[in-house]
Amino acid sequence: MSRVAGSDMAQQSCARFTTAEFSHMAASGAFDDMKVELVKGGLERVNFPKSRHSIRQTQLLFALTRAIDGTTLKATAEIGIDLGNDTVRGCDVAILRAVPEQDRWMRPHEMLLVVEVAETTIRRDLGYKRVDYADAGIAQYWVVDGDRSIVHVYADPVAGEYASVRTVRFGEALAVPGTEQSIVIL
What we know:
This protein is an alpha+beta fold and 186 residues long. It is built from five helices and ten strands, in the order H-H-E-E-H-E-E-E-H-H-E-E-E-E-E. The strands form three sheets. It has a six-stranded mixed β-sheet. The longest helix has 18 residues, at 51-68.
């Protein structure tokens, strides 16, 4: 009985933060030496990318930038997404509908595509992040699975899940949302 009570006590004493508090901590330099996401009010450390991840992320950013050239869309990497009052996720690459005038995290309705490069994070990216992005209404979500040489493509968020799910193999054309262009991931 005391073990259960102790567990309950530990959970009750955990600090929970709002997005505003997290933003204030980040602005004050609290996370300058680490990557951190705010997930359901709790802080989660995220590993810095290794070389294979970083190279694939850069290749994706350049490919998407070329694909959206001539549109009002903007491509970016390593941007935070405010998913609500208690969650701020970071993504590897994104296509934005527009860049906000003030310096802040993006909001789901401002994003056309969110991409995660899953070299070591496949379970998290296909699991919790997918659910969080669908809940928030992120229009399209790609998980680039380097180990399997495929891209998991999720679209049409409905009630916390994506209604459209498909897999595209590396080397096959992948349609870029908001354009008539496609890219190929190798």
